[in-house]
Predict the 3D structure of the following.
Amino acid sequence: MSQLPEIPQEVEQHLASLDPDESRELRAVWSLLGAAQPVVDQGVIEAGWQDFRSRVAETAESPTGLRLVVSATRLTRWAAVAAAILVVVGSGLALRTPVYTAAPGEQVAVDLRDGSQVVLNAGSRLQGLSLAQRVVNPERAREYVLDGEGFFDVEKGTSPFVVSTFNARVEVLGTRFDVRAYRDGFTNATEVVVEEGVVELGGSSRSVELTQGMSSVVPQGSTVPSVPVAVDVERVVSWKAKSFSILDRPLGTVFAELERRFGVEIRVRGEVNLEARKTLYYSADRSIESIVSDLAQSAGLTYRPILNGFEVSGAR
Amino acid sequence: MAAGIKGSLRDSDIAGFESFYRESYAGLVKFASTFVRDTAVAQDVVQESFARLWQRRSTLGPTESMRAYLYKSVRNRALNAVRDQNLRSVRQSEYAVDTGQTVVAATDEVDAKQLNERLQAWIEMLPTRQREALLLSRFEGLSHAEIADVMGVSPRTVNNHLVGALKFIRNKIAAFEPRHLAV
């Protein structure tokens, strides 16, 4: 980059409100910083380009493959599928279903094809449609199946963005929302919280519209979403910032959540009331052991570390 | 510039993509390095983002800023890479920068090269978000709106980060290189 940017207008406006000396100094800093512009090594760029070129070689040199897919509507569907399979059969992509997985103990951010973004919470899986399926059903290109929990930041688009879980379907055009559909034996439900925009949550027989700050639940075995209620959205989605937050859930769910988030095993011995409701909040830097220790104390249990986690014991 | 690149990207034109790539690559690697610190990882992150953009080129909306898209993609991937790394090692390298700075600060008479080195060190010392905003605005020439998009904050917050960064560096210059401020 040969030309360095001028001081942006917004910064100028702010500087104008400061005392003249300070404003002059900050302008000088902006200008001095020009000297700190990183030196660009042409060799590195060249190497980068060659590497990139070889990575995309197949698609770059046979653009017809992509054109076929783009113009699929003019072909019959089966012909289009056959063409798509033929074109990409070398790379095996046509039938491959995109699957994104966050293993226990990790969270994964995913850029989706349409520019939407998803952060998957620990122990979750998101699956999209294969290229062949998308060619057959172009209007379903933005459909995904979620197992676990994900926070979705959806780009506006012409076709609906759909997240299906084991018992519910969430449909939007462009918004940010959290879908939680773990089944741990204590909390078995699809729970949706909307951070921004409007979301349609459908059980198998009825659906509700959720607006900003609202939440609704479809319990397993139910076909109807619950009446929407206002929730503390920030708290619900704080898992993205690695916080550990539990809002009024059974102890059994808390243990399952700990197992996923920290990739550990929580073994339960003796009499432990796993239905007891708990509310907890820990910021990102708290260790698993300190959380287990607090939990045990509050529930009148003892705990000890085991090989890959903790054993929690109640009275015998 | 942007419209032309987008047009050529849509047409699967590798030559158009190549010039865009060559123009943006170094800045993106630098940007990725502010998160991951390991140059090889940073280069990987950038490469993946370009590959993604290349795959997506036929579905890009007409109003999307190509640069903002790339920087956003690089940022997400870099943050993912950081997540996969050992957190402790990230902190250690930040600490190394801090201590390196005190060595630089010992001399008095400085030429342009030394000033440049100090500026680099001070940029490294900035809080992450301020550093991000500064790099994107000062060196990559992104608009406030584009930076806001990349960082997922409002343009007003971008401005606060930028002014904060300028003030931080002004204080460093005032302490170690005061003659550069006395214009």
